[in-house]
Amino acid sequence: SDKKLPQVASMPNLLRRGLGVHHSGLLPILKEVIEILFQEGLIKVLFATETMSVGLNMPARTCVFASPRKFDGTGFRWITSGEYTQMSGRAGRRGKDDRGLVVLMVDEKMDAPTAKDMLRGRSDPLDSAFHVSYATLLNLMRVEGAEPEDMIMNSFAQFQNMRRVPQLEAKVALLEKKRDEIKIEHEEQVNEYVKLRDGLDALTSERRAITNLPTHSVPFLQPGRLVRVCVDAPGSSLFSSSDTEALTRMTVDADDQYDDEVRNPLSFDETLLRKSVEDGNDSVWGVIVHFEKVGSKKHSKHQKYLVDVLVKCAEKLKLSDADRETLKLNDPVFSLLNSSERHSLLQCEENRVVDELPAVEFRVVRVPLEQLDCMSSIRVYLPKDLYPIEARTRCGASIREVLKRFEERSKEERERKEQKEEEEEDEIVIPMLDAEKDMKVTDKAYAKTVQKIQMLSKMMKDHGFKTSENAIERLRKHVEKRRLEYLVKHAKKEVTVASGMIKADVLKRMRRVLRRLGYVSEDGVVTQKGRCACELAGADELVATELIFNGTFKALPLHMLVATVSCLVWKEKTGGKGGKDVNGKKQGMNVSEDVFSAHSNVKDAARKVFKQQLECKLKVDVEDSIERLRWDLMEVMLAWCKGNTFSEIMKMTEAFEGSIVRAIRRIEELMRQLASACKVIGESDLEKKFLDACELVKRDIVFTPSLFV
């Protein structure tokens, strides 16, 4: 029956033509056949993943890259220099070819720095992936005189960490030197103004956080409503120190390298500085088109709202240097540092110089709800189809007409009221939704926040720094000095961390988890549960031990025991065939009540362990960790234990044959470890049960011996 497997049936036709396929989804026996034939020169063209080109020493005359990007489990990225060197190094067979040929098929735009780094960049650094598991910790605690701290101090990860100390100390000295070189005229005046600006930014963020709560804002997200959209990402500020990655991305070898690496990520364009001095708005007018809720329905805290807004913007990739200078001179909110990767938001008001640029147009941009500044009580007509540029332009004209009419009305009111101050002459009064009356904001802190914002705004307008000479230049120096001060503190903290033992906090918290769950006594003596967990390495040792001690494994019949163990091993997201609804959720395959009950017991045990880890301040997402204990393979393993052939169980799942074989082998290995654990604690009946389950699983093509042995 194994000959009827699609992989086995299709392989001979390819091999007769000198073609081969090699990837992790193949049956192990087929992969070995491909490798042997390729070594013998009987396969002329081999389609392979990087497993073949990186991990195995099998050179070829020519290597072809179908794409310079690869999927790394989360998304597509450019291949690194080390990966390219390793894979392209297979081109050219020693003793047969004078040279090897490499073909790189570039199917999308690649900028010069990326190409240079890929072809001639440095090799990938060798970083330690040292990790302390609970089984390792318990085994060390059982041995007299062996301390986990000694193992960590003698690890390669600790060596790498301590080797960074001289470099980090040099980094601190260089940063302090650069900071002290910056001299600012009347620095106290600048500091005072910046403190006011910081306070205003914080209060404005608080005000927006209240009004943008879904309970207050979502009822008013109707299509056609005028809104003001923040140019920058929510919570961003000219003076914030939240971007740690950008701050710490630097070298300390030479001053010229420092300038290139540090000044660029920390520099700010003229717009942000000008806005801070001239009270320029940090938001633009737009029209709501649509909104939707995204995120997991199970966990409300992960739910967010995204709003589609029609705004005038410039596409960054189409902007030439001349266009950027034109926008800086003619649009006070233009910034290349805003939250959108593709577009820079612009003022909606008519500006012929800006509107004539080819990269500028009205577009629908998706922003998070938190990026809305405020909402108007006015709504404009919105065409059903905004795809044509003409429709978007007409809608933009409607926004401008509304702004123009209210500007004229504001001028008439100012003419009647001579007491209006001159500095408010350009203000356009658009009716906005009242937070307390319209949006039903009942938070008592809101009114105080608005009052403080008004007070700080007036203090900033009256501050002497605004009318001083070289205000922008002095502010730029202050920003750079403040950033360098933050970098000095961050670098000193890195020196302190690098000088001490790595994972010290994690080790302390793991010990606390073991004590609370009963694996270790208060005196640090390993208990019976701890000795059981010491034998397990093929899955989460704590969850598996809890299933032994709470009687879950003992109560299950032999076939269901194997299926339940598969939950601890299988991590892939694969659908099955012939799905049905279980508790209102669509599942990949038909799930029996016995399977559902067994899987629920596994989740209950896991929830107990993960919640305890979270309480001990270990970084763990309880619900996400529980969801990884998947039941996709449970029905497959039940069928396998009942004697179904491999070809029959493959019809029950969409996973590759190679993935199923690896999973069954891991399940068999884990059950042998569970049998050893039961022997340690004197559970002879459960030990025999696990050994019988191993014999039940170990058969046919899944456990075919290797051809290389």
Short structural summary:
The chain is an alpha+beta fold. The protein is built from 30 helices and 14 strands. Helix content is 50%, strand content 11%.
Polypeptide structure, described:
- By secondary structure, the chain is an alpha+beta fold.
- Helices cover 50% and strands 11% of the residues.
- The protein has 30 helices and 14 strands.
- Strands 7, 8, 9, 10, 11 and 12 form a six-stranded antiparallel beta sheet that branches. A two-stranded parallel sheet has the order 1-2. A two-stranded parallel ribbon has the order 3-6.
- The protein is globular and about 95 Å long.
- Mean pLDDT is 83; it is low at 238-271, 422-426 and 578-588.
Using only C-alpha atoms, the radius of gyration works out to 32 Å
Uncertain runs are 238-271, 422-426, 578-588
Q: What's the average pLDDT?
A: 83
Class based on secondary structure composition and strand pairing:
alpha+beta
Helix content bin:
40-55%
Strand content: 5-15%
Amino- and carboxy-terminal Cα gap = 25 Å
Main sheet summary: 6 strands, antiparallel
Outline: globular
Number of helices: 30
The tally of strands reads 14
SSE blueprint:
Blueprint: H1 6-16, E1 19-22, H2 28-39, E2 45-48, H3 50-55, E3 62-65, E4 69-71, E5 76-78, H4 81-88, E6 101-104, H5 112-120, H6 134-142, H7 148-153, H8 156-163, H9 165-181, H10 187-211, H11 214-217, E7 225-230, H12 244-248, H13 255-266, H14 270-278, E8 283-294, E9 304-315, H15 321-330, E10 343-345, H16 352-355, E11 360-368, E12 372-379, H17 389-416, H18 444-461, H19 471-499, H20 504-517, H21 528-534, H22 541-549, H23 552-555, H24 558-569, E13 581-582, E14 585-586, H25 593-615, H26 622-627, H27 634-641, H28 646-650, H29 657-680, H30 684-697
Helix pairs in contact: 4-5, 6-21, 9-19, 10-18, 14-19, 21-22, 21-29, 22-25, 24-25, 24-27, 24-29, 24-30, 29-30
